[in-house]
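pls read this stuff:
=====
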Amino acid sequence: MGLFTSIIQALFGSGRSGIVAQANLPGPGRFAVEVVGTSHHQESLEAICGGRSKDGVRFKTTAVLVLEDENPHDKKAVRVEIDGYAVGHLSRENAREYRKQLKKAGHPKITASCAALIVGGWDRGGGDRGHFGARLDLPAED
């Protein structure tokens, strides 16, 4: 965990939401859905993975998809959390499709989880440092 993350946690708490998923969405293992906005959550992603390495990471974990009906920028936003930390959002298009599928399944307000893969985050020295990204393994349409 970086110094900045330690200071923030000391001042404001862990920053973890404590939201628990009500259902798990099994995917096909392709991790085809990219999480957007991860550039704003690099410290959280680094903390989740346990830090950077020379070759970067491919860290499998679980993500929770949180409906953000009160988001001032997009009332249909879907926040992605890992280990209680916000790490980004579904793209606008994917958020709308996700909500459409929840409604079709009869669960328009459910909080669900799915497999996630965090990638990147290398640090080879000399300024060669890569960003972390995240991908989700959501069910594919038939």
